[in-house]
Amino acid sequence: xxxxxxxxxxxxxxxxxxxxxxxxxxxxxxxxxxxxxxxxxxxxxxxxxxxxxxxxxxxxxxxxxxxxxxxxxxxxxxxxxxxxxxxxxxxxxxxxxxxxxxxxxxxxxxxxxxxxxxxxxxxxxxxxxxxxxxxxxxxxxxxxxxxxxxxxxxxxxxxxxxxxxxxxxxxxxxxxxxxxxxxxxxxxxxxxxxxxxxxxxxxxxxxxxxxxxxxxxxxxxxxxxxxxxxxxxxxxxxxxxxxxxxxxxx
Length: 250
Hints:
A hairpin with a 2-residue loop joins strand 12 and strand 13 (201-205). The chain is globular and about 50 Å long. It has 10 helices and 14 strands. The strands form 4 sheets. The protein has a 5-stranded antiparallel sheet with strand order 4-5-10-6-7. A 4-stranded antiparallel sheet has the order 11-12-13-14, sandwiched between helices. It is α+β, with helices and mostly antiparallel strands. The model has no long low-confidence stretch (mean pLDDT 97).
């Protein structure tokens, strides 16, 4: 299929992008497009405007900041995967990015795009939550910092306002034990269930409407995952218990 008709915009600066988002009704931001473009083609998303930020300069850095790793909006997942700075300061992030789809997807997909998309089966939102990181947004109204525990609201729903652009994600340095484990039908598929360990924190993904923090001693308590053709709810709870046990023993 082909996308529904939309108006295309190509800002050259963050300020111009924010100005467009504040003035347009029903606009979507395009960065990597690895999630958005399929939604457009299947007409599951029908925005009236598409704001392509790929021509904005100076928005593709991956760098150390304030005792952690800052990943800007146009930094590709492959760049994070290959970064020695990330590997040294936050190896959990390096390992998690390698589980995202396939390398050809990571060459174009962005970390901030994955966080803004807020897919509950995605690895990176759970990593940000387990680490206690945050994102930085910009709009014509100014700058805002959103903590990970406040960012994810529901399936494909985040706390970003329609006029806000996520310009950076920040992941704290991790010197404690870590692990990320998931179970999927095929390599590169979304996880049936997954866990992220960052020190004593345990985050789950693929088993609720958002990534969630869980008690490592009883990770499936209160968990009510959905059932579908891929797995029953009880099987997902079983996976959480097994994966959490392995992660906490790592």
